[in-house]
Amino acid sequence: MVRTAYHHGDLHQQAHALALSTVREHGDQAISLRALAKQIGVSPPALYRHFADRESLLAELAISGFDALRLRLRKVSPTAPRQALIGIGLAYVAFAQEEPNLYRLMFGGRVLPRGTHPRLDHAGQAAFQVLEDTVDRARQSGFLKPMPLALMTATAWSLVHGLSLLTIDGHLPDADAEPRLAEGITSLLLEGAIAHSDNNKDLP
Amino acid sequence: MVRTAYHHGDLHQQAHALALSTVREHGDQAISLRALAKQIGVSPPALYRHFADRESLLAELAISGFDALRLRLRKVSPTAPRQALIGIGLAYVAFAQEEPNLYRLMFGGRVLPRGTHPRLDHAGQAAFQVLEDTVDRARQSGFLKPMPLALMTATAWSLVHGLSLLTIDGHLPDADAEPRLAEGITSLLLEGAIAHSDNNKDLP
DNA sequence: ATGCCAATGTTAACGGCGTTAACTTTAATT
DNA sequence: AATTAAAGTTAACGCCGTTAACATTGGCAT
Predict the structure, then answer these.
(1) ∠ at Cα B22 (A169, B129), nearest 5°?
(2) What pTM was estimated for this model as a whole?
(3) Residue B26, φ and ψ in degrees, nearest 5
(4) Residues of chain B contacting residue A193, judged by C-beta atoms under 8 Å apart
(5) For residues A62 and A107, is the Cβ–Cβ distance under 8 A?
């Protein structure tokens, strides 16, 4: 495909990129297909050749977000179990704090309910997988108590997800005001999950 | 004020109630001032005599939500520290699961950013206060480790908030599929926060 | 090379939205 | 009883997502 006056030639990619930067700066509510088309210099219906509707565009942006989160989590170098767990928790929260609008799009729940968009679901699961793998390694090594993997990962995910949203929504002091809050919180959870020789009884 | 053909007489309360039930059933995105006015049988601009704009109406609904959450949390009967903490955590998650659309309005973050609506902020803080008081009592009684109250409550809140949102968004099995997930998660956190003395290792 | 077709643009239009301006009716006050 | 403030009305503006109908163009089969 070649760029001409009539055929744009790169509309899908350009719309995706521009919409992504708009979301990152101003949130998904700032996305308007008409405004997007005007900025690119194309008529509004042209976008419908590349995106079924507004929701589909947002879904693509959310997928980009999950990909970025997955890459971010994968960069946490595998070390001793404790450092690996704390490190991946902090990386998760840091991502949310650096990309609050993108994170809210990914997990806002208002748009794009789970189970309706296979590619989006897959991207989310792939990011989650990194977290689960880290927990599983620590568990396999005997560092954590012998409890169901699903329970452990659900707990860890709930904690970092809740902390992420509460901080980016201003309910808790953010990383600038309380730089060690995230570390304190993750450490506190870890205390309950570590296998202690004198305290390794089963939990419900 | 008396009801006449012209003057409605109860528009504010009726609009609030109808909008609240709409949000509970279909989410805040389903709220349209025009549709609301039509259902009530009034012209759209009439609503502007009672609500500055759509956001103000949503803020009022969110305040109602926080009030309901606060009352729900206050109903948790004060018992031994462990039961009180688990109980209030489960009550929090149960509220979110029973009122997912309302909970998302309260904490969605897309609308109504914190710090812009004093009455809304106050309602949120009042609900949070119940949670903090419960944690503080357990701490004062020596059941929990001697660590900063703010850290403990932030951890507890993050956990129940994250769990609430992940379940209502379908990322984790909900209460029907895994009725003991919330209990397992809160218990797991508690293990890390309990002061490990002999008289605290009583109940599983 | 040419003719066709699918891809990818266009303009025009529909219905819905939040919101404002200007006006009207009613309730309350003086 | 006259006036004023409260709480409705209609009409309109500019935005939005989306669709229908049409136009242009690139690439492929002939």
Answers:
(1) 40
(2) 0.93
(3) -130, 5
(4) 188, 191-192
(5) no
CA B193 to chain centre: 24
- Which DSSP category does B76 fall into? S
What is the C-alpha separation between B30 and B83, in angstroms, rounded?
A: 39
Residues 29-88 of A with CB under 7 A from strand C: 37, 42-46, 49-50
Cβ contact (<8 Å) for A189 and B155?
A: yes
pLDDT band for position A112 (cuts 50, 70, 90): confident
Question: How far is residue A105's CA from residue B115's CA, in Å, rounded to a whole number?
Answer: 21
How confident is the model over B51-77, as pLDDT tens digits?
Answer: 999 999 999 999 999 999 999 999 998
Give burial (CB, 10 Å; 0-12/13-18/19+) of A54: middle
Give pLDDT tens digits for B114-146. Answer: 889 999 999 999 999 999 999 999 999 999 999
In angstroms, the CA B63 to CA B70 distance is: 10
